[in-house]
Design the sequence.
C-alpha cells in the first residue's frame, strides 16, 4: 500500500461536506470558526501584517490569531510571507481559493450587517418571551 494513500481520504469518497471523512468538512470547520471568518474577511480587504490583523479583528488574542492563521495556511486559503528582515516582517494574503471563500463570507457579512435592525428586533422579541 502506498503510504500517501493511507494519509488521505478513501479514493471512492465523493467530496461531500456532510461526510465526516471529507477534507472539505475539515476545511469548512476551519473557515466557519469565528476568528477564521473574520481573518478571511479582513484579508479580503488586502494583505495584512500580523499586528494589523490583530487590531482589525477586535477581541482575538495573539495566540488564537496565530492558531487561526496556521489552520488557514494549512488549508491553502492564505499565504504567509516572511520578508526575512530585522525587525521581522510577516505578511498574510489570500490565495485564489481564499479569495473565493472570502468573497462568499463577504456576501454573508453584508446580509447580516444590513439586517442589524431586524436581528435586534428579533432578539428583543425572543428575549421578551
Sequence:
Amino acid at each position: 500500500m502506498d503510504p500517501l494513500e493511507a494519509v488521505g481520504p478513501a479514493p471512492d469518497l465523493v467530496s461531500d461536506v456532510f461526510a465526516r471523512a471529507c477534507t472539505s468538512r475539515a476545511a469548512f470547520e476551519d473557515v466557519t470558526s469565528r476568528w477564521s471568518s473574520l481573518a478571511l474577511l479582513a484579508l479580503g480587504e488586502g494583505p495584512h501584517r500580523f499586528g494589523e490583523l490583530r487590531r482589525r479583528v477586535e477581541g482575538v488574542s495573539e495566540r488564537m490569531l496565530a492558531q487561526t492563521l496556521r489552520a488557514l495556511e494549512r488549508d491553502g486559503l492564505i499565504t504567509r510571507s516572511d520578508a526575512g528582515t530585522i525587525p521581522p516582517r510577516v505578511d498574510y494574503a489570500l490565495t485564489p481559493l481564499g479569495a473565493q471563500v472570502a468573497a462568499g463570507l463577504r456576501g454573508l457579512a453584508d446580509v447580516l450587517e444590513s439586517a442589524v435592525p431586524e436581528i435586534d428586533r428579533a432578539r428583543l422579541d425572543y428575549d421578551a418571551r
Remarks:
- Strands lie at 48-49, 78-82, 90-94.
- The first strand starts at residue 48 and ends at 49.
- The mean pLDDT is 91.
